[in-house]
Design brief:
This protein is of the alpha/beta class and about 160 residues long. The protein is built from five helices and ten strands; from the N terminus they run E-E-E-E-E-H-E-E-H-E-H-E-H-E-H. The N terminus is likely disordered.
Length: about 160
């Protein structure tokens, strides 16, 4: 199974991202183990406690979102961090299917990828990505981006009720 639950260990120095009276659920769709660890460490370094779900394949992310076997009881994420370079169905395919579904298209999708190609950026916005961020190489910059994502999407923006 490629979707795993990763809880941020609670301590007094971590801020819980709360959404609708519970910890926020973030779905990370990323196939690179190093980048998965980077996101987890950035959340930890930023002091952010959330329920992080990880999918390493586009097909598995869509199965999770559409509650297909074995994810019938999967909880709808509040935010999706999506890489473009995935095995099988790539990030473009995932974004397209997600944004075509009336129930799922309201979930904010942040494309978080290494690509800076103008074609990729334009294509993602045409497919209704909510945001496109090129991953910085510097860990401190990456951590700051994670903080900004958290602050904007869970403190500033108003998300729709499920």
């Amino acid at each position: 199974m490629t979707v795993k639950m990763s809880h941020r260990p609670g301590n007094s120095q971590k801020q819980s991202i709360m959404y609708q009276d519970r910890s926020a659920i973030i779905l990370l769709v990323e196939d690179n183990p190093g980048d998965i660890i980077l996101v987890e460490e950035a959340l930890d370094t930023a002091g952010i406690k959330c329920n992080l779900q990880v999918s390493t394949k586009g097909e598995d992310a869509l199965d999770y979102l559409f509650h297909k076997t074995p994810y019938e009881k999967a909880v709808r994420p509040d935010l999706i961090l999506l890489d473009l370079n995935l095995p099988g169905k790539n990030g473009f395919d995932v974004l397209k299917e997600l944004k075509e579904d009336d129930d799922l298209k309201t979930i904010p999708v942040i494309v978080l990828t290494t690509s800076t190609a103008d074609f990729d950026i334009k294509t993602c916005y045409k497919l209704h990505a909510n945001c496109y961020i090129s991953k910085p190489l510097d860990f401190n910059q990456f951590t700051e981006i994670v903080r900004i994502i958290e602050k904007f999407w869970f403190e500033v923006a108003t998300l729709p009720n499920k």
